[in-house]
Amino acid sequence: MSIFAYSPPLPPFLFSALVVSGLASKALHIALHIRSLPFLYFVLYSPTLILPDVLVIICVRLLLRFHAPEGRWQWLSTAVGGGLSLITWGASSIQFGFFLQTGAEVAWAAGGSFLSDPAAMKILLSGISTVSAAATVLGLVAWLIHSHVYNLTGLGLQAIRDLCMGGYKARYTLIAPSKSCMASFDLRSLRRIIPAVAICVSLIFLEVTRPEIPYDHLSGALPLTLLEAFTKKSATVEGCREPAVPFPLMTVDASGNSHPLYQPDSFVEQWSRASWLPENPPKGFSRWDMSPHDRAVKDNSYSYVCGGAEGGFYNPKNDPIKVRNLGGEIYEPLKKAFKEHSVQVNHVVLLTLESGRKEMFPTQQGTPFFDNLLASHKKKDVEEAIDRLVTMTPVAQQLTGEYATDSKGNRANLTDSPWKTPTEEGMGGLNVRGAMTGSSLTFKSILGSHCGVNPLPVDLLEEAALEIYQPCLPQIFELFNEGKLTPDTKDNSKSEALKNPWKPVFMQSITDDYDRQDVLNENMGFKHKVVKSTLESSHAKYHASGKEINYFGYAETELRPYVWDLFEEAANNKTRMFLSHVTSTTHHPWSTPDDFMKQSYMGEQGSINHDLMNNYLNAARFVDIWLGDIMNMLDRTGIANETLVVVVGDHGQAFGEDNKDMTGTYENGHISNFRVPLVFHHPQMPRVDITANATALTIVPTILDLLVQSNSLDERDSEIASALLPEYQGQSLLRPFLASIKEPSHKGHGDHHRRPPPPPSPKTEPEPEPSQFEARSHPDSPAKRSVWNMGLINAGGSMLSVTTASVPYRLILPLKEGFEYSFTHLGEDPNEDHPIKAWTLKTLIEEVTPKHGEESAAWLSDAEQVGKWWVTEQKRIWGYREA
């Protein structure tokens, strides 16, 4: 006898797999949101949440009937039902695997984008072990109960049929009757069917009357929700930009009349050609180039503004949330250094730290993060743990000037630091505390640090298909280079270095294929790059000598010979270097080279698996050593004193020690994913510590301002830099950061000149006029123009972090259904251990007001309006339109 004779029939097992997987997925889906659901409403509407699952189960049970005579229709029916069961089983396994890894649930709408990207597939496959484990458990449970589930469901459907048929016996089980139900009704069958009708009517009533949010989202059932991955994606339209929409906030004048907080009399003309622009400028300077008519005549292309209307491109004079600080004085210590000509910037190195949390740059006592690390140790081991943790990132301490203290209260001993010649005490440049990222997706964040632009609030890197609306640093340096090609533009009174051309180079030891990063880098103006494909090329000058450490590529140390060559080239006075380098070791799965000696930073206390955090801490130490290597190479080549080193994190990284509900960055708005380091290091600049809720938008303006103020540009380039400086959305951190300013009078916006400001220092810009409107009582009242910091939450199109620079409130604003509002007061809850969540803003305000007062309620109302306006405005200025 065949061994398969003892195997369970396939259709019952497949059906059981669908039931178990579908209901388990629904239970997980509801459990993730249960705390934000009013208990009575949840009990009332809970039957409607599983109604779609019940309908799917019934349909598949009918498809998987196997008592009927075999035939081609029977085989087709079984194949369709079996396919739906396998899909549901697989999808539910993915959901549980993803939840076990991150604490979040899968957004199927973004699945298509990941499946179409080979590099992204490696990320998905990294969790195959947990997915396999989930599939095994679901399959085992389904096998154990398959016969009971199949038979009980069949008996239930037969009972329903009998209610309708009044005892009529069909020839085949579960086949639709050939006679009308109404023909067999009698009084007894009517009495039997009344309860069923009442239940159906009640379910329909509840389904119709329940609130759409969040119950429509919670009622989604597998495999139907998978259709989201195949919905038509939005189209990107390059260039065509609609006129700006009015800013939503209103204010009240002395007469009680409402006015928009900021609405210019008319948009500033966009199309006057800049006098400093060469005849054939590099990419990135379209809005200074020529009129739509001239462009159409020249290359028969379309207008950059739909219908030729004014106000299409980004214009700082029309930006209601831009706060300019160029009228303020430069910090006094910096002014003195610039006056004494002790600061020279011939080279710029921009280091982007993957998953670079501020609490890790450097690690030191006094943060919730550090306290959570210590909580894993037994009391007797705490002092030893402190001493080990505070010496984990010594280079970060030397770069920031934030020196940690050991368990005895003394400054940590940094004699073992890999950077042997750090900057002397009191020197080192700008160190920012309070910086936050503009996106928890790496490449969207890089747009802010390299181009001074806010990202596009859609999933993944759609920006790669569009024109970046501000010139990026490589494009600015390329524009500087065009003047170097003309001999009569050289200024012999300047140092020889000012005559050298800039050479922008991008380096990372991993692939640049993921999510079109290679296209984005080209659009930003990088013509030279060293990436994974370079290290593996048969023509490589230096081949990778080690093994790949993760699914993206190699350790940063594989770049050492390339970095050294670039520094030597700059030292030989041939080029002015701009190096952009992105680290990657601190990306999941936080692997390090085999010869790297790991240390144990985590204890055994608590119920959380500390292995992931320990791997991350070791990866952070590896990157800190690599930063020390870079600083040593600058010293050895002799260009350290003329190089500005900017260090910024792309985003943070949440672990179970931070947030027990969710880990990682994907659809996780926790504050640990947003606090990042921001340092402008120069050994000849005095140390200035800045506390500001700033973002990477400040990097480009600060670099331009520094180049001008330190006389590190020739006359022509200084004119260009001075003209570009006020065009960016961010502030220069050489001057005190302004969280808000009084709004100029409504009549004072009629500036129709598009010419850039004159070359002299931007400090001559006049201060804003006093407002004619009275402010509301809360700090960020609409009578003040405030710095609103927006941060997209990975993958970019589902949630938005909204903060203002002058108050400690934070709102997580959902951009799609299925996501909750969340409010935190960071002054009282800096680690966001107790966020207040709700499905509607009205409910959120009702919960927030008793705890934090009317001020917070007013801010929340404004934050939602500004956040939604910002989403629309960003799509407009990026030239992105949804189909």
UniProtKB/TrEMBL annotation:
PANTHER family, per database record: SULFATASE (PTHR43751), SULFATASE N-TERMINAL DOMAIN-CONTAINING PROTEIN (PTHR43751:SF3)
Coiled-coil ranges from the UniProt annotation: none
The keyword Transmembrane helix appears for this protein: yes
Biased composition annotated in UniProt, kind: Polar residues: 410-420
Keywords, ordered alphabetically: Membrane, Transmembrane, Transmembrane helix
Name of the protein this chain belongs to: Sulfatase N-terminal domain-containing protein
Domain Sulfatase N-terminal, chain residue ranges per copy: 515-707
Annotated organism of origin: Penicillium arizonense
